From TrEMBL:
Keywords: Hydrolase, Metal-binding, Metalloprotease, Protease, Proteasome, Zinc. One of its GO terms (molecular function) is metal ion binding. SUPFAM superfamilies: JAB1/MPN domain. Transmembrane segments: none annotated. One of its GO terms (cellular component) is proteasome complex. It holds the Pfam family Prok-JAB. One of its GO terms (biological process) is proteolysis. This is Proteasome protein. Residues 9-107 form the JAB domain. It comes from the Archaea.
């Protein structure tokens, strides 16, 4: 399914999560309904640092599928890392990165290839 938007509630929850984990990274996997990202899943026991994205891939039970992911970059650089590019294709088609200081515009959506993409907030 094509993801075209995120609910504003989900977006503000993710921003709060990024703020509360700072200076550590947070990672969440996202569900969608009718093309709108609207559900947040956290996996227990994940380490909250930049390597967590790759560790996470080993912790997701087989058969679970997601529409996208969200994680933070406490250094404020909103560009996918090499680890992110490896991680994105396994977890759906829309991936959000939140950068310090986590203001309303301090985030960007990326495709599974790590390219910037647009995402409506509804
Ligand atoms: Zn990252």
């Amino acid at each position: 399914m094509m993801i075209h938007a995120i609910s504003s509630d989900t977006l503000s929850t993710l921003i709060e999560m990024a703020k509360s984990q700072h200076p550590h990274e947070f990672v969440a996997l996202l569900d969608a309904e009718n093309g709108v990202l609207s559900g947040i899943n956290l996996l227990p026991g994940t380490r909250l640092d930049e390597r967590s994205a790759s560790i996470l891939t080993d912790m997701v039970p087989l058969g679970m599928s997601f529409s996208g992911s969200a994680h933070s970059h406490p250094n404020g650089v909103i560009v996918p890392s090499d680890a992110d590019i490896g991680f994105f294709p396994r977890f759906g088609s829309c991936h959000l990165i939140f950068g310090y200081p986590y203001g309303p515009d301090d985030w960007q959506a990326f495709s599974r290839d790590g390219l910037r993409r647009s995402l409506e907030v509804i």
